[in-house]
């Protein structure tokens, strides 16, 4: 099924959760999974719901990586 992740169309398997997608993307990019905020269809998905939130056809997912500094 097709979804949009950070503005790019991407194919994901039915039943994929937010947590599964984050793990997959982190593996591809080598980025740390900590400090990531997820927005699904313009609503923030709390970290406590990542494992239970199933992605649906046509969802728009935005992942934002927090960067610390000083």
Automatic annotation (TrEMBL):
Organism domain of life: Bacteria
Residues in the signal sequence: none
Record InterPro entries: Beta-grasp_dom_sf, Mopterin_synth/thiamin_S_b, Thi_S, ThiS/MoaD-like
Listed transmembrane segments: none
PANTHER family linked to this entry: SULFUR CARRIER PROTEIN THIS (PTHR34472)
Stated name of the protein: Sulfur carrier protein ThiS
Native species: Hyphomonas beringensis
């Amino acid at each position: 099924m097709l979804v949009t992740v950070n503005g790019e169309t991407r194919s994901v398997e039915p039943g994929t959760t937010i947590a599964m997608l984050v793990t997959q993307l982190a593996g591809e990019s080598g980025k740390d999974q900590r400090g990531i905020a997820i927005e699904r269809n313009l609503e923030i998905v709390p970290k406590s719901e990542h494992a239970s939130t199933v992605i649906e056809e046509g969802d728009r997912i935005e992942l934002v990586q927090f960067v610390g500094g000083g």
